[in-house]
């Protein structure tokens, strides 16, 4: 990750932490390596909505985004927070795919953050 100028900190044997500053926010993300997959994840991307009505609108929006975007996907973690992740198989993974994953994560994070945040924080 340092070759392209991404700073990183090792969290454990299989996880690294890094971050970037986009146009609308700063984002912290994790890179986790398993036997068969590598995960690039912003967690939390947006904290869980407090209102059920906001959650429903948010989840509907996230499903639509997942259909439109490439490489990345939105998900909900155990705390109902929104995460943004790129998952790639490690078999034959090359440097360009690693870079593409970071590019996709940073691009979609910056592009969709305000819309997702606004939906999550919407009040009746």
- What is the radius of gyration computed over CA atoms, rounded to a whole number of angstroms? 15 Å
- H/E element string? EEEEHEEH
Quote the distance from N terminus to C terminus.
43 Å
Task: Please give the share of residues in helix.
Answer: 25-40%
Largest beta sheet: strand ordering: 1-2-3-4-6-5
Output the number of helix runs: 2
| Mean pLDDT across every amino acid position | 93
Q: How many beta strands in the DSSP annotation?
A: 6
Fraction in beta strands: 25-35%
What structural class do you assign from the helix and strand content?
alpha+beta
Q: Explain this structure to me?
A:
The mean pLDDT is 93. The protein has a six-stranded antiparallel β-sheet. The protein is an alpha+beta fold. The chain has helices spanning 52-68, 95-121; strands at residues 9-12, 15-21, 26-33, 37-46, 72-76, 82-89. The protein contains two helices and six strands. α1 (52-68) runs antiparallel to α2. The radius of gyration is 15 Å and the shape is elongated. Helices cover 35% and strands 34% of the residues.
